[in-house]
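Hi team,

As requested, here is the filled-out complex form for the zinc ion run. I kept the field names the same as last time so the parser does not choke. Let me know if anything looks off before we queue the next batch.

— J.
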Amino acid sequence: MPTQRMYCHCSICQLVYDGPYSDFMLANAKTVSVNPVSKIHYNRYKKPLALDRGVCTECQKPAMGFLQIVPGVRLAFIPAYTLNGHKDIPEPSRHIWYHSRAADIEDDLPKIEGKMRSNMACLGPFYKGFRGKL
Ligand SMILES: [Zn+2]
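And here is what came back:
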């Protein structure tokens, strides 16, 4: 089960998720398997991260994303709705790319602005976690 969950307000998430922000979870891609019969089309957008974003070709919803952060280490970006109702789903911990938000959000979560800070808030825990294993 992923441990990191957050909201991303970047313009690509707004486009792919067809909403003001994405709600997603992060996990080591090695712990995730995608059913081979899934009809997912992957697309790579330039900014903010060269993430392979998979969208279901039937319902057009985001299904899965992958990002290689260092050689041999890939992260899986899992839309939170895909685990709706699962008892162990983590709570969202922060907002990233908040500077490109479509609207202000009224909650107590940290709101990270700026490209570098947002990327570190997203990926930092994984760099730390993998450092000793490379
Ligand atoms: Zn985003």
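Two things worth flagging: The mean pLDDT is 89. Strands lie at 4-8, 22-28, 40-44, 52-56, 62-70, 73-79, 95-96.

Thanks,
J.
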